[in-house]
Amino acid sequence: MKSLFSARKLREAGQGYTFMTPALFVLLLFIIGPIFYIIFLSFHKVQLLGNISYDFVAFDNFTRIRGDTRAKIALWNTFKYVIIVVPCQTLLALILAATLNAGLKGQTFFRIVYFLPTLTSSAVLTLIFMWMYNKEGLINNVLDFIGLPTYNFLGDPNIALNAIMIMNIWSTAPFFMVIYLAALQGIPDSLYEAAELDGANVFHKFWHITVPNLRPVTSFVAIMGLIGTFQLFDQSYIFSAGSGGPDNSTLTVVLLVYQYAFKTLGTMGYAAALSFLLALIILIATLLQRKISKEESLY
Predict the structure, then answer these.
(1) pTM of full prediction above 0.85
(2) pLDDT digits (tens, 9 = 90+) for 42-54
(3) DSSP code for 50
(4) Fewer CB within 10 Å: N-end or C-end of the chain?
(5) What is the pLDDT of residue 84?
(6) Do the beta carbons of residue 204 and residue 64 sit within 8 Å?
(7) Is residue 159 a contact partner of residue 152, using CB atoms and an 8 Å limit?
(8) Is 53 helix (H, G, I), strand (E, B) or coil?
(9) Amino acid 169: pLDDT
(10) Residue ranges in the chain modelled with pLDDT below 70
């Protein structure tokens, strides 16, 4: 009887793994395989054109990062972008969700309007904002019309990255707004009614009921924001035509990886080392965020 039971369990397990095979194959081919290949490349000097060769260089690609000025600039630009964009897009998403959840008229219309940027291609949004940021674009025309100074958003190193930040905060917040909105509708109305009986105003209810109950969702939004912002590439590439300019002000780590991997011969291994370093930074940042969120959830 025991052997029959074991045979049935083995058969069921075999059937389960059979159904999982396509997904496991895709996971191995497009995720796990490339990860190990990147690790392999990061320890080699790679020649992929002509006579393909892999020359083992140990940690030379990683030590090279310390002396690479452009790598330091890219890391700083990326960190600055993450530190500013993640809190701003999270806060904006929460405010939009709380506003839409307040029972205002025309909620459906505003939800659609707010969510439209998320449905638009990132490349298309970037091109639209480039037109708006142009010297003769919409923003400068409005500023000039009301008598304010105009700016060279695309050509000023002090402004270019900030212009990308504004665009991404505006375009990514609606996605997280929908997540917050779903979570808000799960908070019992009885909590707010009890707070009203105790004399709590709108701010007190928001700070002492809404925010604590949304902490798990805020953790998820922050982690997703961290992962996404660390991988900034397309907007920076389109804004600067792939150069990271002006004066490396929009150069990010992923854009630098692209330049070393596909624009410079003989530096594929170095590009792999940079990408491995970025993956490690994202992992550490994500783990720290999870730890902070776990501590806060004990509220």
Answers:
(1) yes
(2) 998 887 776 778 8
(3) S
(4) N
(5) 96
(6) no
(7) yes
(8) strand
(9) 93
(10) 1-5, 50, 104, 294-299
Distance CA 38, CA 239 (A): 28
Query: Going by C-beta distance under 8 Å and a sequence separation of 6 or more, which residues neighbour residue 34?
Result: none
CA distances from 271 to 12, 38, 109, 253, 256 (A): 45, 9, 46, 10, 8
Domain boundaries, the chain: 2-42, 67-296
Measured from the Cβ of residue 297, the count of other Cβ atoms closer than 10 Å reads: 12
The whole-angstrom separation of Cα 257 and Cα 169 is: 24
At 242 the three-state DSSP class reads coil
**CA distance readout (Å), 86 to 37, 61, 81, 248:** 30, 30, 8, 22
Record the tokens describing residue 34, joined without a space. 């490339």
Neighbours of 140 (CB within 10 A): 19
* Distance (Å) of CA 227 to CA 11, 48, 141, 183, 293: 40, 30, 36, 21, 16
**Cβ atoms of 57 and 43 closer than 8 Å:** yes
Query: What would the DSSP string read from start to end of 151-201?
Result: --TTT-TTTHHHHHHHHHHHHHHHHHHHHHHHHHTTS-HHHHHHHHHTT--
Pinpoint the alpha helices (H) of the chain. Answer: 2-27, 33-42, 60-66, 69-100, 107-119, 122-133, 138-145, 160-184, 189-197, 202-205, 211-213, 215-230, 234-240, 253-258, 268-296
67-296: CATH number? 1.10.3720.10
What the block records as the tokens of 165 is: 């930040």
How big is the CA angle at 211 (ends 210 and 216), to the nearest 5 degrees?
110
- Yes or no: say if 156 and 72 are a contact pair by the CB < 8 Å rule: no
